[in-house]
Design brief:
Layout (H helix, E strand, L loop, with lengths): L3 E14 L8 H13 L4 E6 L3 E3 L10 E12 L1 H14 L14 E7 L4 E2 L4 E2 L8 H10 L12 H7 L5 E3 L2
Antiparallel strand pairs: 1-4, 1-5, 2-4, 3-4, 3-8, 6-7
Length: 171
C-alpha cells in the first residue's frame, strides 16, 4: 500500500518514450501511461498536455522522443508516488541500464507543490526540468503559471532560455 499523507499536493509528471514496446509505438506507450496514472490510488489527473516530439537530450543518435506532462493532485508522499511511477514504467517494459538510455517509458516528477527534496532516490523539483523544452512546453499546456521552486523563474522566462531545442507538437 502506497504511503499517503494527510493533505493533497499538486503534482506535475513528465511522460516520455522513444522506443516501441513490442508492436506498440512510443506515442501509444505514453497514452497508456496516462491511463495507468488515472488508476493510481491517491492520484487524480486534472489535465494532460499536448504530445510533442523532441530530439534526445543530450544529443545521441537515438530515435526522437514523444513527450507530455500531466497535472494532478495527490495525497501520496513523494517517494510513494515515485514507487508508483517506477512500477508503471516496469509494467510497460522499461529496463534501467545507463543514464539517458533510450526507453519504452520514462515518468518523472517535475514538481510536487514546490517541495524541495534531494535524496539518493529523488530530487525535487526535477534537477534539469528548466533546461528542457520537452518538459517546459508541455508544462505550459497544463500549468502556465508554474514557477520553478528553486530559481523563482516563471515559465515564460524558462521557455525563452530553451528556444532552439528541436521540438514540435504532434497531437
Amino acid at each position: 500500500m502506497a504511503e499517503e499523507t494527510n493533505h493533497t499536493r499538486s503534482v506535475l509528471i513528465a511522460i516520455g518514450a522513444n522506443l516501441p514496446q513490442g508492436e506498440q509505438s512510443a506515442h501509444k506507450s505514453c497514452e497508456q501511461a496516462v491511463a495507468a496514472l488515472r488508476c493510481v490510488p491517491g492520484l487524480s489527473i486534472e489535465a494532460v498536455s499536448r504530445w510533442y516530439e523532441s530530439a534526445p537530450m543530450p544529443p545521441s543518435g537515438q530515435p526522437p522522443y514523444v513527450n507530455g506532462v500531466v497535472r494532478g493532485v495527490t495525497s501520496l508522499s513523494p517517494l510513494a508516488l515515485l514507487d508508483c511511477l517506477q512500477q508503471i514504467e516496469t509494467q510497460q517494459g522499461r529496463v534501467r541500464s545507463v543514464p539517458n538510455a533510450a526507453r519504452t517509458l520514462d515518468l518523472d516528477i517535475i514538481d510536487m507543490d514546490g517541495v524541495c527534496e534531494n535524496t539518493e532516490r529523488l530530487c525535487l523539483p526535477h534537477p534539469r526540468a528548466q533546461e528542457r523544452a520537452f518538459v517546459l512546453l508541455p508544462v505550459r499546456d497544463v500549468a502556465p503559471q508554474w514557477v520553478h521552486p528553486l530559481t523563482g523563474q516563471g515559465l515564460e522566462q524558462m521557455v525563452n532560455a530553451v528556444q532552439g531545442q528541436e521540438i514540435r507538437v504532434i497531437r
